[in-house]
Structure formats: structure tokens, C-alpha cells
Amino acid sequence: MVAAASVVVAVGAVTGMVSALDDGRSSDDAKPLVSRSPSLQPLPAVPTPSPTSASPSPVKSASPKPSPKPSASKKKQQTVAASALLYRHPDSQVLDWVEAHPGDARRDVIESRIADRPAAVWFADFTPSTITARVRAVTSAAAVQGRVPVVVAYAVPQRDCGGASEGGAPDLAAYDGWIDNFAAGLGSGEVIVILEPDSIAQSDCLTEGEQADRFASLARAGRVLKAANPKARVYYDAGHSDWNPPAKQASLLDQAGAASPASSDGIFTNVSNFHRTSDEIAYARQVLSALGGPASLGAVIDTSRNGNGAPSDGEWCDPAGRKIGKAPTLSTGEARIDAYLWVKLPGESDGCKGTPGTFSAEYAYELAR
């Protein structure tokens, strides 16, 4: 991914998060499995001699002026903060590891600082016949607990521009149908939807016509998701602070419907990346300011691995010296920042500490201790 985010890296996004994949079991079984597709090869916002190095650190600019309607922004933030707690899905690789290693000296740290915290559940496979039931299994379980689940829709065609996280629906018509089925599983309670990491920030590989078609499909996706569940909060891909300049990213987001409250509740940043929360807050506000739209639009930030910021050498694959970031919360105390989320689960490898997407106790312990 990006340069990709997600390689997402550059982020983006997606390697090895908790994923609810269809493996042929009952359609009601949403036990998360790791998606093998997401592996990260950063796509720098500004190309550098090394294809695997992150983009150069951006010039830090001051935060934008306060929203012209601060009262509205503040009111929205308080509403979000008053929501129920975030949901922790009971099936994940880290929980499996904790259960299987009661005597491991690293267990208590990994359990208390990673396994016990809520993380997003990824739906990264194209399975139209089972996606409704599997999304519903997550949202209904969260509703029983009175908590808010975070679900990631990751099946857009040509995702990752044919990189390590390639996959998804065969075409946009099929993707539109998959989104319809995804939306049918959202239920009626609060839910946060992370819509297609890297799909906007990493769209330069598409032709102008392909880009327009993708953006139209993403705008439709937001409308469908919010129409299916008015309490769903849908966030669009803004990359991260070391990728596209805010004005460019805002222009792309606008074309994808992210400025319209009928499709969007705002943007997400830093998925699977390491950039400091303070940098992401400033960047998100700049993007939102350039994007326009109602003052109710906000941002969510992936803080799962950004406790020490991004490596100075641009390393993106399980880099040493990183730490988990701020705990997931719906109450950030920051204007226009709706939540800090763990979209990527700490300890799931980018591919250097283990097979991409598999849990590494060694890496989890390094991040958590």
C-alpha cells in the first residue's frame, strides 16, 4: 500500500490484521483468520532512490485554524466520547497464543497490553455469499455487550495496485454487490467502518477513468453502509502524514464522497503505520480543513504501533524499536479526532518477524514491554 499504505505503508495497511475470513466453515462463524494478502511495501509520497524506503519526513506545518463552527465540532466530539466502549472480538491470534502459553514469561505483558484491548476485525476476502453472516456475527456480539465494533472493509478491485496485498473483488460491479451484502450485516447499533485502506491514497496507479470509477464506487459504498445502519460511522482513506500532501489527499477524498455526510463521517489515517499521533492529528486536521464539508466530519487514527514514531531509516517491515501507541478509545480530548483505534493488531508480522499476517510473540513483546 503505499506507498501504500500498507504496504501499506507507507503505509497502509494491511498486513496481518485480525481478519474474519471465509474458510469454508459455517457462514455464522466469524472467527478471525489472518489475511495472507496484506504485506507491506511502502509507496513513498515522493519517490526516493530506494523503492522500499519510506518517503522523506514532511515539513511540519502548524495545525489549521479552528473550525469556523467550534461549537458544532465540540458537540460532535462529546457525543462520540459518550458512546459505549469499543468491542474486543474474542477470536484472534494473540488470544490464541495467550491461551496456549500459560507459562511463557512474556504472557502477562502481551495479554494485558495487547490481547485485552479492542482491535479492528478485517473482512479482506471476496465472499459475497457469506459476508453478511460474518459481519453480523461481529456486530451482533458487540451489541449484546453494548460495545462498538470496528470493522474493516477491504475488497476493492486492484487493491494495493497489484502489490503484496493484491486481491479483492474481480470488478467494481461485483464489489458493489459485496458492499451491499456487507452493509446488510451491520445491524442497528453503533459500528465504525474503516472503508478500504489505501484505496484513495494509493490510487495513482489507476488511469484517470479507473480512478473516477473507483471513487464513484467508494462514494456509493458509504451511502449504502450508512443507509443500512444510520448509526454506522464510515471513515475514508487519508493515508498518513508522510504520504500525500493534505490538499492533494483532500481532493482525492472529495472525489470519493468523503465530504458528504450521506456517505462519510470523516477520514482515517496511519493504518498499519508508525507515525506519531501528534503528527497524525495535525495532518488529519489539515486534510479535513482542505476537504470542507460539515464540521461534523472527524478523523480516526491507528495508534497500534506508533508509540515511538516511524523509524528514521524508513524501515517498514517489523522495524525494531517500535512501541504500541495510545490505547484504543472513543474519547481523545482532541477536536475533530473521533477515536484512536488499533486497526492493525500489534504483534502480527509485516513479513520479517514471521510469515506476513501471522502472530509473532517476540515482536508483540518488543512492542508492549
TrEMBL record:
Keyword Coiled coil: no
Keywords of this entry: Carbohydrate metabolism, Cellulose degradation, Disulfide bond, Glycosidase, Hydrolase, Polysaccharide degradation, Signal
Positions with a binding annotation for substrate: 122, 240, 243, 273, 316, 344, 348
Pfam families named in the record: Glyco_hydro_6
Listed PROSITE patterns: GLYCOSYL_HYDROL_F6_2
Signal sequence range: 1-20
EC number: 3.2.1.-
Claim: Signal is one of the keywords in the record: yes
Sequence ranges of Low complexity compositional bias: 51-64
Matches recorded under InterPro entries: Beta_cellobiohydrolase, Beta_cellobiohydrolase_sf, Glyco_hydro_6_CS
Listed GO biological process terms: cellulose catabolic process
Chain spans, region Disordered: 20-80
UniProt cross-references to Gene3D superfamilies, sorted A to Z: 1, 4-beta cellobiohydrolase
GO molecular function terms listed in the Swiss-Prot or TrEMBL record: hydrolase activity, hydrolyzing O-glycosyl compounds
Family: Belongs to the glycosyl hydrolase family 6.
Protein name: Glucanase
Organism per entry: Streptomyces sp. R41
